[in-house]
Amino acid sequence: MQTKLVDFGKRSGLKVHPVSIGAMRLPDEEQAIRLMRQAIDAGMIYIDTSRGYADSEIKVGKSLKDGYREKVILSTKCSPWIKKVEPDDDTSAECTYKRIIESMERLDVDYLDFYQIWNIDRRERYEQAVAKGGMLDGIKKAMNEGIVGHAGFTTHDSPANISQYIDEADWCKAILFTYNILNTSYEEVIAKAHDKGIATIVMNPLGGGMLTEDSPVIKSTLSEALGTQDVIGTAHRYLAGNKNIDTILCGISKPSDITSTLENYRKPTLTDGEKNALEKAMRKLSSTSMGFCTGCKYCLPCPADINIPAMMSVSYLDKLLKVPRRASEVYGWTVSEMNQERSALPSSCTRCGRCEEKCTQKLKIMPEIKWLSENYEKS
């Protein structure tokens, strides 16, 4: 039994399955083609890829041969602050149009249903994107030529800023947000976007893999709240019950990613009582509730250029939530050369103590940074 398609935002006029394809971490080409077609045949017709996802576009393109292109809503994205294909990439319309054409060549298609501005994470990025002669004008040129259907953006910005963008962006047909049982900070702006007719897409429905880890902390908290330790099933049922979410991205790397997610979406959604109990329980696991780093950034700037809030987040994930794999991923991105605001390594700490003097939570930051240096830096 296939789940009924829903409106993909009123603005686009399209229909979508509540579960869609996240193509960030596809396996080797042969397996990727098989998985992509399995997902499409099961009804998962929206595809999220990117020029920045290694060879994802190429694998997706090969998956869409033999009539599969006509069955899907295909979306890709890029931005120079996340991925510079060439050193002189910028936010100009010319550069954006060039990247659109390149993505189409890699996907081997003559049309993109969506092209998104990748990760608007601050007002400055939004202004660059929508400025005259900026990224949006490059997308609109492609739309005028009939090779792109719709424009949208992905975001990690503050809810307040996103709310303003929603009011201003009459051109926007879809927004990709982070949302899951551990992070509901975008709930109100997701609802606002939905009310405005903008398609709402959720990434990280399982917390970037965090909820797939065998965390005794999360399991025991869920057990106390709902009498179950089925973290993944509960996370999916929670999202399925939110009528303001049009679709979630299911990252596929093996067949069970597809089958288990679809199975969970066929289950009854949480009752109001279950939903309230779950939200109350999950709030207890927040960094703030646990008396840890709140991300206020008063500790910055660090004289050694360490991104202290990000590093403290790694410590929180590993030591408090017991999800070391996710902690390692966050650490890797924090110090990655791809991250234009990358942090210095923890071993750069000079133990000057300024961060602890300014910390509103009076946390012992220096021991945490030392622990990260000893446990996360490669020898």
Quick structural overview:
This protein is an alpha/beta fold and 379 residues long. The chain contains 15 helices and ten strands. It is 42% helix and 13% strand.
Number of helices: 15
Structural class based on helices, strands and sheet pairing: alpha/beta
CATH class of the largest domain: Alpha Beta
Low-confidence stretches: none
Report the end-to-end length measured between terminal Cα atoms.
52 Å
What percentage of the residues does DSSP assign to strands (E)?
A: 5-15%
Number of domains: 2
CATH topology (fold) name of the largest domain:
TIM Barrel
Amount of helix:
40-55%
Write down the secondary-structure element order.
EEEHEHEHEHHEHEHEHHEHHHHHH
- The strand order across the widest sheet is 3-4-5-6-7-8-9-10
Q: What about the largest sheet? A: 8 strands, parallel, barrel
The count of strands amounts to 10
Shape: globular
Q: What is the overall pLDDT average?
A: 96
Q: What is the CATH superfamily classification of the largest domain?
A: NADP-dependent oxidoreductase domain
Q: In the CATH hierarchy, what is the architecture of the largest domain at level 2?
A: Alpha-Beta Barrel
Q: What is Rg?
A: 21 Å
